[in-house]
Amino acid sequence: MMVPAALLLLGALAAVVAPRLLARADWPDREPVLALWVWQCVVAAVLLCCALSMTLSAAASWQALHGHLFAPAPHSVVQAYAIGTAAGPWAATTAVALACGGAWTAAMLVREVVRTRTRRRLRRAELLVRAPLLPGEEPGGRLVVLEGERCDAWWLPGTAPRLVITTAALRRLERRQVDALVAHEEGHAQARHDWLLHCSAALAGGFPQVPVFAAFRDEMHRLVELAADDMASRRFGRLTTALALVEVNEDRGVFGPSPTPQAHVPQRVDRLLAPPDRFTAGRRLRLTAAAALVPVVPILVAFVPGLRALG
């Protein structure tokens, strides 16, 4: 059994099949937090397959790494992995290619971090210009009221996270709708959805030809909004949260016939106004357990030969 090849095949299979199954399912709209977890498991499984395949391929090609990796293992385990002097001609090429892919992934993550910090610095500098500190006001307040004619609110993450809301939103929305809007943005901050968005953007930007990473990025943008909607609706009601969404986005043309970047807003409103579906706890528990096992599959594929040899 060629374990590195099996791991690559398993990773490719997960990258192709899992997004299609998730796209056909309707439960992610009902359980966005669970869907976020499943998507992370799928991407983690794909990356883990590549990492394990790279390690085993490198061990088959370079004796130094082979000695460090299999030094404590019995000879039967080494034979079970078919790793020795008769390494295949493609082992070194596979290891180098996967190592380059890993280095490129790290570079894309670093680039995303640098870009994010630059954008945050610019937005914080803009806030200081548009909403300067009053005499005697201490910097670093969590709430910033911004003069503006556009109804809007957003969370600015970072070491000192801040919630920004415009005066137009305070004038237009009722008190509970403002509270629901604030709860929505706090939901993003508490769950650290910005980390998910940055990681998915880095993978999709670094590997634009890999469909699973593009789907991962698009679904993260959609599912984090659904998860934050649910957090707000649990505190202030589904109707109040839906009305707040309508009031904030009504002037942006998202409810018209032409598509916009916020085209998912009408679906979010319809979802909040629809009768809640009954999603049993037992089914959710079984699905959560199955999702938790997704990253374990490549580990089992990698270690089953060794365990079988030890037995």
Keywords:
3 strands; mainly alpha; 311 residues
The biggest beta sheet reads: 3 strands, mixed
Span between N and C termini? 17 Å
Low-pLDDT ranges: 278-282
- Number of H/I helices: 14
Oligomer: single chain
Mean pLDDT: 79
- The strand line-up of the biggest sheet is 1-3-2
| C-alpha Rg (nearest Å) | 24 Å
Strand tally is 3
**SSE pattern, N- to C-terminal:** HHHHHHEEEHHHHHHHH
Q: What's the helical proportion of residues?
A: over 70%
Given the helix and strand composition, which structural class is it? mainly alpha
Strand content: under 5%
The coarse overall form would be elongated
Description:
The chain has helices spanning 3-24, 27-30, 32-61, 63-70, 75-80, 91-130, 167-172, 175-191, 193-206, 211-236, 238-249, 265-273, 281-292, 296-310, and strands spanning 143-146, 153-156, 162-166. Helix 10 (211-236) packs across helix 11 (238-249) and helix 11 (238-249) packs antiparallel against helix 12. The model is unreliable at 278-282 (pLDDT under 50). The protein has a 3-stranded mixed beta sheet, sandwiched between helices. By secondary structure, the protein is mainly α. Helix content is 71%, strand content 4%. Strand 2 and strand 3 (162-166) form a beta hairpin.
